[in-house]
Amino acid sequence: MSLSTIGIIGIILLLIGLFSRMPVGFVMALLGLAGFSYVVNFDAGLNLLARDVWDTFSSYGLTVIPLFVFMGQLAYQSGISRRLYHAAHVIVGNRPGGLAMATIGACAGFSAISGSTNATAATMATVTIPEMRRRKYDPGLATGTVAAGGSLGILIPPSVIFIVYGILTEQSIGKLFAAGILPGLLLCSLFFLTIYLRVRKHPELAPPGPKTTWKRKIRSFTGVVETLVLFAMVMGGLFFGVFTPTEAAAAGAFLTLVIALLRRQLTWQGFVQSLSDTTKISCMVMVIVTGAVVFGHFMAITRVPFDLAGWVGSLPLPPHVVLGLIILVYLVGGCFMDALAMIMLTVPIFYPVVMALGFDPIWFGVIIVLVTEMGVITPPVGVNVYVVHGVARDVPLETIFRGVLPMLLAMLICNLLLILFPQIALFLPGLMK
Amino acid sequence: MTLLEKTGNQLSRILFAVAGAAIVGMMLLTCADIVLRLFRRPIPGTYELVSFLSAVSVAFAMAHTSVQKGHIAVSVLVQLLPQRWQALVDSVTTSLSILLFALLAWQSSLYGASLQKSGEVSLTLQLPFYPFVYGIALSSAAVCLVLLAQLRQHLRKAVRQ
User: Fold this and answer.
1) With contacts defined as CB-CB under 8 Å, which chain A residues touch B107?
2) Under an 8 A CB cutoff, do A50 and B108 touch?
3) Predicted ipTM?
4) Quick check: B58 and A26 CB within 8 A?
């Protein structure tokens, strides 16, 4: 059997294995081990497994993951998410659809301290849905808004997906973070616009709330200050090269802890809970990363990714058509798979292709994060939709998916804008040294 | 609850607590280093220590994450099958996972032993690598225990109905 045949069989087995309900990381590690052993020999395969696991687990670059996750969990347990929503609510709540917009705003705020889309959706769903329901918002609009708003979690830094992408492709995590900010704000505005247009057409979806005074608006703004300070310190330190990503994450987690303690809003149970969730989430992420590293080593000796890159590069198609096809793969794949698993699996294969076509690596990172995020809210495996459903049990899944549809359109437009104007993503990283 | 399950759960909970402590340790150590750096007194070897702590935090959390079914898996297709078939598929995949972690436990202990023999240490602090690699072996063995208990349940479901 030729090496490429073995590689392609490996990919097919991987697809089968992924759908067998075996943990994604385990499947990749096992197949990587089997494939490498088949090509070289069993001893070499076993050696590779032990080394890859140790190297990945003890990689300094990846230590940033548990620390950023910890920061988000602490923020949640200490009620920062609630205060953000309260502020947004007071400021725009009296406009038609204001609460939904407040939800998006609070999601964006929380994204600035949380690196995970599911965590953002889960956190903000618990905080915002009861309030929107109380004000007689349409359940579809309420739940769809949170599910989509959660996707800002990995676009606006810090973002676990950007970290993993950066490590896989050896790109600067700081630059990737910077590249996510403007597209994140753009998507946020597009979400606002979507809600505005929808509510203008169907005012019954979102009854306006009572008016609030300017004085209250200004006072409620203090709820946002802590988040702004945290974001400024963490991202500022990162952009200006004062911190490495790990240091920024450690400082961010520590500051969040200090704020929580000063406000006397973190109980011992809350602390233990946040630590326990952090440990579990980061272990889950690292196991997938490790599995992908082992599988990636198998792929590398079969040379399939490079052959594929060469083949696609020589196709008589314009680069943007190839890019469109790749995006289609992410869209379809994202409907079935978790965003992280999807990226770990495909980046090693598509990255060389995209580079061969002459696209910018940082820009491509932003594009695929956005595209996989669309997958996170489309059926049948829209993880965020399930997360929101878990919080609002009485709203049927179909209703949430229907509520998400207009938001998906906004994401599609955001994507097109990014492809037409790569500068939206590349402007900020360009300012960095 | 069987003895196997009990032992597995207890062991994984102890390891999990160590993993959590390692994350707090990473945070405190890194912050202390940042602050002391301002006074031109950085903590030597922070880089290495944080890497080691991270290895502990991931490895020791693996078993508990398995107990809590915290690992991401795609169940869209399998959940369409009848119960019994689901249990069969789960039995097969759990057996494969046990195989993977048994091999990992075995290989990590060999790898640890070879690092111990060659006396490999970290750059700044001269800390030996091998205890941490043995840690991975230990936690992989704990994952095997947890998965064995799960396999027993899957098999029972597959046979009983």
Assistant:
1) 46-47, 49-50
2) yes
3) 0.93
4) no
Q: What is the mean pLDDT of chain A?
A: 88
How confident is the model over A360-415, as pLDDT tens digits? 999 999 999 998 888 878 876 677 888 788 788 888 888 998 999 999 999 999 99
With CB atoms and an 8 Å threshold, state whether B58 touches A33: no
Which tens digit of pLDDT belongs to each residue from B126-135? Answer: 899 999 999 9
Alpha-carbon distances of A257 from A79, A97, A282, A366, B24, rounded to whole Å: 12, 34, 18, 30, 11
What's the farthest any 2 CA atoms get from each other in chain B? 69
Tell me if B20 and A57 make a contact (CB, 8 A cut-off): no
Kind plus residue range of the DSSP H or E element containing A212 = none
* Average pLDDT, integer, range A183-210: 91
Q: What is the pLDDT of residues A414-425, one digit of tens each?
A: 999 999 999 999
Minimum distance, in Å, between the CA of residue A338 and any CA atom of chain B: 8
End-to-end CA distance of chain B: 20
- DSSP assignment of B133-159, as one string? HHHHHHHHHHHHHHHHHHHHHHHHHHH
Cis peptide before A380 (omega within 30 of 0): yes
Q: Which domain holds residue A193?
A: 3-431
Q: Do B97 and A23 make contact, defined as CB atoms within 8 angstroms?
A: yes
**pLDDT tens sequence across A210-230:** 777 888 878 877 778 888 888
Q: Report chain A residues whose CB lies below 8 A from the CB of B147.
A: none
Count of domains observed in chain A? 1
B1 CB-near residues (< 8 Å, 6+ apart): none
Q: Please state whether the peptide bond connecting residue A158 to the residue before it is cis, i.e. omega within 30 degrees of 0.
A: yes
